[in-house]
Structures are given as C-alpha cells and as structure tokens.
Specification:
Elements: E1 2-5, E2 11-14, H1 16-22, E3 28-32, E4 35-39, H2 46-53, E5 60-63, E6 70-71, E7 76-79, H3 81-86, E8 101-104, E9 109-116, E10 119-126, H4 129-144
Parallel strand pairs: 2-6
Antiparallel strand pairs: 1-2, 3-4, 5-7, 8-9, 9-10
Length: 151
Amino acid sequence: MDKIPLTQGKEAIVSAEDYDYLMQWKWCAHKDGNKFYAVRYLGARMHREILKRMGIEAAHTDHIDGDGLNNVRENLRGCTAAENQRNRGKQRNNTSGEKGVSWHKRDRKWHARIMLNGKSKHLGCFNNPQAAKEAYAKAARELHGEFHHLA
C-alpha cells in the first residue's frame, strides 16, 4: 500500500501497482456529504480510475469499508446505484446511534426500519434499542447480502 497526498491535509491509500500511474496527476480532497474522496481536474475520481485499471465496467464504485480515501483494490468493487446505497452508513441526523433504529414518541418504543427497493420496510417495535438493532442487522444481512452495512 502507498499513500498519495491530497489537499486539505488528507491522503489517499492505494495499492502499490496503481501508485505510479496515479501520481501523473495532482489529486485533491473533495468532501461529498460526510465523506472525502480523491478527485482530479474536472471531478475525475481516483476510485473510478482504479476500477478501470482493474478491468471492471460498472455504473458505480463501492468502498467496502465506507472510507472514500481507502482506494486499495481489495476495498473497491463495482456495483449498481441501489447496491451502493445499501452500503451507506447511518444518516447524519441519526439520534439513536444505530442504523435503522429510531425512537417513536407516540408508541414509546424503538422502531426498526430498512430501505428495500426505494421503500421503507417496517421491521417491528421493540422495548430497547439493542433488540431493534438486532432486527435491523438480521434484515440487512438477508436483504442486502454482501452490501449490508451496519454502522
């Protein structure tokens, strides 16, 4: 693994076989939502360049560990837009601390929900957040397979 310096004091991690190729450009750190990505002139993203070098044609690229600056080959995979969304972390406005879990004031219970094909699927109401978290985790593994992400 090698590190490529970016702007804003950030750096991208890449596989050794991609380092020399990627160093022909100046890379910048670009914040998109709550993640940083390595980009170059006109918005070309480092992870897309690496996927092309790997011979993978895909509409989207997924960072398996959720870190947009970890561009080692083992951390990248081609995916669809839906698969990429399944591997998202919890939302910034999350108040329970757990993905897919929220407090329902009227019922005074913890609710678990998961997104499936663009629709919210109710998984149940629970007396404690741990039970709701477990229901979400089970559904995520079953419905999202290798693209499930629990944190």
